[in-house]
Design a protein that fits this description.
heterodimer, A: 171 residues, alpha/beta, Hypothetical Protein Ychn, Chain: A, five-stranded parallel sheet, 6 helices, 5 strands, B: 104 residues, alpha+beta, two-stranded antiparallel ribbon, 2 strands, 45% helix, globular
Chain lengths: 171, 104
């Protein structure tokens, strides 16, 4: 690399094509998946990249007013937790592990789910609920957060993904 | 890697991403030149944010969008409107402070 740069921000655009839009699909309600999705969406906006989230199946829990602050980390069937399956299934284990994880996240200035959704909405991230999953779980629109941008079918979501340099990601 | 850059008639040192490496080399004119490179037309509100960022940096407070949103200086929505192509990274560059490492 040469020692001088005329326009430091131009190097990205020369022959590499930067990502323009991130389309994230959140299908799970465990707190680690929800945060991974939110951080990716928010991180994109912070870099000037558009981002949208499609909440489907259990991912809908993350945008239900009554449920979004009560998401848990999975202590059973999650080898990353290093808790024996039998112990992980004991009453209170999930709550305890979740509490510990939330306190660690707060130390890192990572907001709770509700506040994070507000930050995402303010940053311009589009938040969509999946129509089919809503019908399946008998969820009405009024159960969902006020910042929701709308209810879409998968076809609608793909239409929104049109354009060069859009990336889709399933979480 | 440190490179030298000339803004107006002043020579400053930057890292390879164009962030000033010395907070004290910064002047408002340099900020204005960097803003031009980023395609930002500075208003009073922009400068208010820049002043806040510099102040926080001098106090060695790590910056994040969440903290800025709670600062009372600017809401998160306004912050994105002021610096649409990446509020924290672009405003930090204009403010002559290091690029924040926060993901939030």
């Amino acid at each position: 690399m040469e020692n001088t740069i005329t326009n430091p921000t131009a190097e990205k655009t020369e022959d590499k094509k930067p990502i323009k839009k991130m389309m994230l699909i959140l299908s799970k309600a465990t707190i680690d998946n929800v945060y991974a999705c939110f951080i990716l969406a928010n991180g994109a906006r912070m870099e000037g990249i558009e981002s949208e989230i499609f909440f489907t199946f259990f991912g809908l829990e993350a945008i239900q007013k009554k449920k979004l602050e009560h998401l848990h980390v999975a202590t059973v069937g999650n080898p990353g937790m290093h808790i024996p399956t039998l112990l992980g299934g004991l009453p209170g284990m999930e709550a305890l592990a979740t509490k510990m994880m939330k306190s660690e996240m707060e130390k890192l200035d990572i907001p709770p789910v509700g506040e994070f959704l507000e930050i995402l909405a303010a940053s311009g991230t589009k938040l969509w609920a999946c129509k089919l999953a809503m019908d399946m779980f008998h969820i009405e629109k009024e159960h969902l957060i006020d910042d929701l941008d709308g209810v879409l079918t998968v076809g609608d979501f793909y239409t929104r993904a049109q354009g060069d340099n859009t990336q889709l990601m399933f979480i | 890697m440190v490179v030298e850059k000339i803004y107006g008639e002043v020579c400053v040192t930057c890292n390879e991403q164009g962030y000033l490496t010395d907070l004290n080399q910064w002047t408002k004119d340099i900020g204005l030149e960097i803003a031009k490179e980023e395609g930002i037309e500075m208003t009073d509100k922009h400068w208010e944010v820049i002043d806040y960022l510099r102040d926080q940096c001098k106090k060695q407070v790590p910056l994040s969008i969440r903290k800025i949103g709670k600062s009372g200086v600017v809401s998160i929505k306004e912050f994105y409107q002021l610096f649409p192509k990446g509020p924290l990274k672009i405003s930090s560059r204009i403010a002559g402070i290091p690029k924040p490492v926060s993901c939030i």
